[in-house]
Amino acid sequence: MAALLREEILSLALESIAEGVYSLDGKGRIAFWNKGAERITGYSREESVGSSSSEDFLGHADEGGKPVRAEDCPAAATMSDGRARDAELYLRHKDGHRVPVGVRSLPVKDPKGKTVGAIEIFTDRSERGALLTELETLRKEVLTDALTGLGNRRYAEISLGSALGELVVGAAAFGLLILDIDNFKLVNDRYGHAIGDRVLRMIGWTLANAVRRNDAAARWGGEEFVVICPRIALGVLAEVAERVRAIVARSRIGLDDGRKISCTVSVGGALARRGDSLETLVARADERMYACKAAGRNRAEVGE
Fold this sequence. Notes:
Elements: H1 2-16, E1 20-24, E2 30-33, H2 35-41, H3 45-48, H4 74-81, E3 85-92, E4 98-109, E5 115-124, H5 129-138, H6 153-168, E6 175-181, H7 184-191, H8 193-210, E7 216-221, E8 224-229, H9 234-249, E9 253-254, E10 260-261, E11 265-271, H10 278-294, E12 300-303
Parallel strand pairs: 11-12
Antiparallel strand pairs: 1-2, 1-5, 3-4, 4-5, 6-8, 6-11, 7-8, 9-10
């Protein structure tokens, strides 16, 4: 009776915390999935419990956007060698976009010290950046893209104008990335505009979560997005561009009939120069983006 009561108290405690928690049994199957895990991933307990860790339905990717093999995800690796682990990864939300998480996995051992399971605790590290924070604070719907919740073109132009003005008086260099979804017209033609809107939301949310904490992602219009990157060197701008490209390429949405839709983006970037206007800066980033299109799409190129 006392053991049963302890289990009930533990279960209630795990359901009340914000972090996602799940456990694997001795066969590597998910045995417990709390409400925090449901909120962060979009997958219900019914969809998750009983799944095998080898299925890797969360599609883990590292911070560079590279996929993590199912057997190397923290909980599965801890099951294998009995060692606790910490990692920072991207998981794939049920809606298709990527979510950055901090992960800690712990072994579950029997009285003889044999590993018989594992527990993984993960925390949502989503940072929508200074743009979304300001949008939420000001609550100016006129500056928000209704479909994605990101800033719209007007907000991006205001932000770029302000950054260019600060550059004139000695502020640190900033960068601009322009992203265009590859072959997006084919998505609309094949699946319809409702699915096309879902793809735009997926890519917008993935983009907002893939950039640095103080970067600002916005929808430029149609299937184009921009990222404004303050206080950045050319090498770091290239890293951000490649990370965004890789993480978007590994995101997807699922249709009711089981089909999966994924898209890639071509990314062009430029560092702002003193004397730049909005038009000249956008033109250099645009030129590199179109060069990526011409070179085969799903590429990133940045320059000064």
